[in-house]
Amino acid sequence: MAIKIIGVEGTKFLADQADALTQDFLLVNHPVIPTGTVQTYLEQQLKLEKIAGVPEQLQEMQAKITTAAHQALHAVGIHPQPNDLGIGKQNTHILGETFFTMAALRYGDYIAKISAAPLSENVSMLAGQIIDSENDSALKELVVDFFANNVAEYELRVQLCTDLRIMPVEGGSVEWPQNESPYVPVGKLVIASQQAYSPQRRVYADDVLTFNPFHCLPEHRPLGSIMRARKLAYETSSRYRHQMNAQPRIEPTRIEELPD
Question: Which terminus of the chain has a lower count of CB atoms within 10 Å, N or C?
Answer without folding.
Answer: C
